[in-house]
């Protein structure tokens, strides 16, 4: 190969690398912006959001949190309804969201949406939201197959949609970004989203795909050299007994550890079916509390306490019960109480449901 051809190849590779870096940067930008918009919803739920204040020993969500919570919820609801063949439109859902937020504040909401979104963009150094996007949020777009994604792209968060993900996975990826901020944990958020999206798809297919199959598919899609890929490979190589010992280690401290501790426990104690690991991954993805015991216990609650799961309490296999209990000892007395509650009602869930629900109300993950 002559010097000219080699030079052309080098230029071509540099251009491809630059294009790839630009695409990755665009995805990161889109996830961050989506996380801020959808973060208002989580902010409304947990009391942390734009305009929130700490008063009288508790969080009080601000007006911005409430407004964007219901508006965003309306847009997401429309996407779900469209994907499931239910009649609706963005205009209807946004209008319903504003009505739920309070008719006495509806006029204020319509006046303030442009200013708030513009302010948020300017504060964080992002491109201000276009006027046509504001009008789309106010009046809704004409109902069409891509109308919801058009709203999201205009915000602009459409890079996620351009990646070819189904709507539900796109939203899951954005929700995952709510859990973590900063470059170090963005990969974990993306992995959690990928798992969540794969779990949702497997659940929708209802074809018996299990957690190992989902993890294997996700593993194959991770880039070589990714440290999270290495951890997935290591996790899948372990036998259940080794995983049971791993599940008894001290509570994790970082988001990577929380996610993998939940997956470890799910693989170590199979039997809950799709609902269990889907619920566990969802709990990890949606958790906004500082990572630690309550986050992990909340995730594992989905693994233990789900329809159709009945622990084997036959007299001949007490070892299983002991392992279940020991796996939770390190997570504190509250988690231990929950496990005892779940194991206390073999073959039924009515009384167990009430205990677990009360536990979740008192100690939300």
From TrEMBL:
GO molecular function, one term: hydrolase activity
Domain of life according to the entry: Bacteria
SUPFAM superfamilies to which the protein is assigned, alphabetical: ADP-ribosylglycohydrolase
Keywords: Hydrolase
Gene3D superfamilies found in the cross-reference section: ADP-ribosylation/Crystallin J1 (1.10.4080.10)
InterPro entries: Ribosyl_crysJ1, Ribosyl_crysJ1_sf
This protein's name: ADP-ribosylglycohydrolase
